[in-house]
Amino acid sequence: MAPAKAVRRLNLSLENGAWGAFDTVIYLTYDYKPIWQEYLELREEAREDRD
After folding, report:
1. CA dist 33 to 8, 9, 20, 38, 42, Å?
2. How far apart are CA 18 and CA 24, in angstroms?
3. Number of structural domains, the chain?
4. Bigger pLDDT: 28 or 33?
5. Alpha carbons 50 and 42: distance in angstroms, whole number
6. Cβ proximity of 3 and 27 under 8 Å
7. What does the pLDDT look like over 2-13, one tens digit per residue?
């Protein structure tokens, strides 16, 4: 895992060194699992409050 500020440098180093003539594109991903779990918990609490 690389910090967001280092992605450009990582991409350039891969393009210039490891892959040679190939282009490389790195897409940032985020871990949404904790956010999704919190959403499910809040949704369940709201459902319980309605009942």
Report:
1. 26, 28, 36, 9, 14
2. 10
3. 1
4. 33
5. 12
6. no
7. 777 888 888 788
Contact 4, 28 (CB under 8 A): yes
The CA distance from 27 to 2, in Å, is 11
Strand, helix or coil at 31?
Answer: coil
Residue 44: give the domain boundaries.
4-50
If DSSP codes are grouped into helix, strand and coil, which group holds residue 1? coil
pLDDT at 7: 80
For 35-48, how does the pLDDT look when each residue is reduced to its tens digit (9 = 90+)? 889 999 999 999 99
Report whether pLDDT(29) > 90: no
Kindly give the residue spans of alpha helices, DSSP state H, lying in 1-51. 7-13, 33-50
